User: Fold these one by one.
Assistant:
Number 1:
Amino acid sequence: MLHVKILLLLVIVVMALAACGNAVAPPARGILDAPAQATTLTQVRQAIDTLYRRHPGITEFSVKNVTYTPAARDKVLKICSEGSVAADNQERERQKVLACAPLIFFFYNYGQQSAVPESVDVARLLYAYATTNSSADAAKVLTDLLRSWQIA
């Protein structure tokens, strides 16, 4: 009877240890894998403005020889949200998402290289905005482009 109790206790201990070993935090989701949630341009602008206010060094950060001052960033964001002269709506959507791509790349890299998770969150938010406010084809073009740039 004592052996059965000891055996049962060992089984419980082993199961508890196994459960603890499996209680590893899930890996952080990349910006391309986050569930799509509707995001407004106002939310994106507020997040970007907050990022620039909290991290003024971002104006001097350069990736692939590109730096985004507030003025340059706003010009690109305007094309990202409105598009440019295009033959049709499909082409305008592609213009918009392709304009968003470098900003997403910039914010993602600033966040990774400067240890500023808030910037990665801005990249994620801008990606959500671009993909939820465009056609599936345009969203796929954006996602494929960002993947080719090693964005996760």
Number 2:
Amino acid sequence: MVGISATLGISESDAVRAALRSVSELLVEPGDETILRPLAATDWPWPDFWKPLAEELERLAAAGLPVETDSGVKNTIIKVDKDAGYVVLLSERARSGGARTITVGMLKNRDATSHGVIIRRLRDMADELQASQPVGSGWFGPFKVIDLLKGCTDPGQPWPPDALGVYAVSRQPWHGTPSRKADVLYVGSTTGRSARFCTRVGDLMADLFGFYGDFTGHSSGGQKLHEWCDANGVWPGELFIGWYAEPGMCSRCAETRIFDDLAPRLNAIRPPRCTKTHG
């Protein structure tokens, strides 16, 4: 396609759109043309957060409800195109009086300065939706660290959820629910309901294997585990890791409870107690 666009003297994206238009006119049955539309966008394939976010925006639009920013500004949903990857919003405080189009590509950059307030609100909505997805309940694992990494492309390998989880790293395996007999070294989680639990485990893995410097790092827990392994002649891949997950749980409460039950050796301080009242 790059060679064709150069020959014709048009951009690659224009060439893709022209080709898809021809294909849709010749081969696609009426009403099925939406299956081709994402391919004409440079941001396709969409990130995982887009589909549930688009469906929630469609639901809000059907109910006549706006997207409200943290400062209380209401944004009317004019159009949601899940297939083409964009939403059109009209802010009640729009200086120009016109609507604005927010694409999936724009949403990928949470820290964008252009339309930053509404982009961050939409991404927060996406995180909340991902955090509320069912992930199963109870303890998953334990898995030997090296086996978990080897299975990273295996669709049958259980994987940490995006949010709402507590992990435990131990010297010995366990069955069912871990106990202090597993020699638990470290327990950790994330604060709030942000969709960063899986990423947090990834941060732990990076530092567990020594990928940090004197002034940079990802996970204090991973660094403590790496130092412990180095001091005790244990290869990090031989440790065991598992995680507890439950839909809708409070990660802070769960982490505190698990910390008290397992008494991990390397945690410097006890996790702070949750200050929220749960119904």
Number 3:
Amino acid sequence: VLEKDGFFRPQNRRQVQDLFKLIQKKSGVNSAVVSVDPAKIEKNKDAEKAAHKVLRSGLKVRIEAFDDVDVFHYLYLLENYFPGQISLENMTFEREGEITGTVLRSVAAGQNVPLVKADLQLVWRTMIPEAQVISDDEEARP
């Protein structure tokens, strides 16, 4: 199951860039601005016993959506489509607007007005063989 989920593959930034676009489209959020930190090697005794290294990258996502359900749908899709293992470290919501007559008319006209903003902090982990690690310092380049 872990292999099928992409846990044993290098962290491919180009692949996940396309995946973030797909998840944004399928989730219904208005926008999702994503930043991915460089991969770092995370100490893990079990991985070392198997001659592997765990790569850890921080993810920050700023979402604008019509409703909080869209944000949770985004998280669901992220967890189910993203290669490797994703863990949510922190999430904050902010109500951006009120439901007014103008907003309701916009919604009725088919516009998706952002009323909610969310900031997500996540951690992305994958595991690769030690032979694929270019440098064994704090940052790794798979």
Number 4:
Amino acid sequence: MGETEEKKSNGWFLWALLICSVIVILVSFYFFYFKKDFDFIVETSCDPLTETCFQRDCTNPDDCPPNGLSDFNRYSVSAKDYASCADEDCTSACASGEIQCEQIECTEDLTVGESCSIPVAEQHNDE
């Protein structure tokens, strides 16, 4: 193969790579910016006396997220609906039905230090 033929084949390969890269960037931009086809996971405050809550130990501030919640509920919220949440807290928007929120069931995950609380009323009913 001659040097000019090799340069031509390298040129076509680079152009194909560039075009494919631009297509991937444009498709990603469309799905994430315009269509907003993804979900946010939000944490809202929770009362462990009345409802089942996720729990984490926040005695060490470095082990706790910025929201500082040690008892919380987790919801999955569509990115399109997330703009309706006030101050990144979707509690009122979810409770009022203004947006569709899917509550994530509490599951114990000791690797990240999360457990589940059982409400006092349910503890007495089980006995």
